[in-house]
Amino acid sequence: MHVDDGDVRTITFDRPQSYNAMTGAVARDLVEAMAGLDPAEHDAVVVTGEGDAFSSGGDIDAMADRDETALEAHERVQETLGGVAESILEAPVPVIARVNGDAVGAGMAIAALADFAYAAESARFGASFVNVGLVPDAGTTAILPRVIGLRKTKDLAFTGRLIPASKAAEWDVINEAVPDADLDDRVDALLSTLAERPTETIALTKRAIHGNLGRSWRDGLEREAHYQTLAYDTDAHAEGVAAFLEGRSPDFE
User: Fold this and answer.
1) Which among 54, 44, 64 is positioned nearest to 4, based on CA atoms?
2) How far apart are the first and last CA of the chain?
3) Cβ of 201: how many Cβ atoms within 10 Å?
């Protein structure tokens, strides 16, 4: 992960060879990169990806190598993926997702959690956890129903299908889908606007908005980690990982 600091802190997923897949280490790095943001020093933070993808979600190779107890899995999910969600929701400056390519699984969660999200029209979005026998994590079950509603959340989570950026914008997963060549200009225009606003006030406003939604997202992350722990031990997860590594379609019973 690459971090450029200044008035705008830019965090870039830099594993393009794996389509910026999310590992525990990447999640921890993201949480660390989100730390230390100060409304007195930063106007915003931009999260983006290097190469053709924003983030393809969980690293399947890492899943295949995982060997841990249920308690260890629960603690890891809370610390890493839960930590990612918490760091975005509690960031004291606006968080902007600059979605340069496909945002799948945890990648889509980050876009939904961000205060603003703009995507290249070529990008696709999906909650593909079910395709490897897992429950949506990284805050997906806590935030997505609030952003797009129950039925659309269930559509994405139960089917694992991908939707184009235009549909993601229509469903409010993101603010807007723009031509690929215009993505930087659109994000820069927002950053120029935010630079003219009192960041400390925005920080308080964000806290007020989230506070008025209630703190149940914390309970949501706890529940999410619990069910994800159960999912790790299922035949569906084992089959999903095996099918991916063998280059075939999974055969879920």
Assistant:
1) 44
2) 38
3) 10
State the pLDDT at residue 253: 66
Q: How far is Cα 102 from Cα 114, in angstroms, rounded to an integer?
A: 16
Is-contact 120 178, C-beta < 8 A? yes
DSSP 15: -
pTM of the model: 0.87
- Residues present in the chain in total: 253
Residues linked to residue 99 through DSSP beta bridges, in sequence order: 119
User: pLDDT tens digit string along 196-219?
Assistant: 888 888 888 888 888 777 656 677
Provide the pLDDT for residue 84.
94
Distance CA 79, CA 217 (A): 15
> Can you read off the two tokens belonging to residue 84?
């990612």
H or E element, residue 29: helix 24-34
pLDDT of residue 247: 92
Is the model's pLDDT at 187 over the cut of 70?
yes
DSSP per residue over 54-80, as a string? EE--B-HHHHHH----HHHHHHHHHHT
Give the start-end residues of each E strand in the chain: 2-4, 8-13, 44-49, 53-55, 95-99, 102-104, 116-120, 124-126, 163-164, 176-178
Check if the beta carbon of residue 24 is closer than 8 Å to that of residue 62.
Answer: yes
pLDDT digits (tens, 9 = 90+) for 124-174: 999 999 998 999 999 999 999 999 999 999 999 999 999 999 999 999 999
Torsion (CA) 160, 228, 148, 114 in degrees, nearest 10: -110
Evaluate whether 143 touches 173 at the Cβ level (below 8 Å).
no
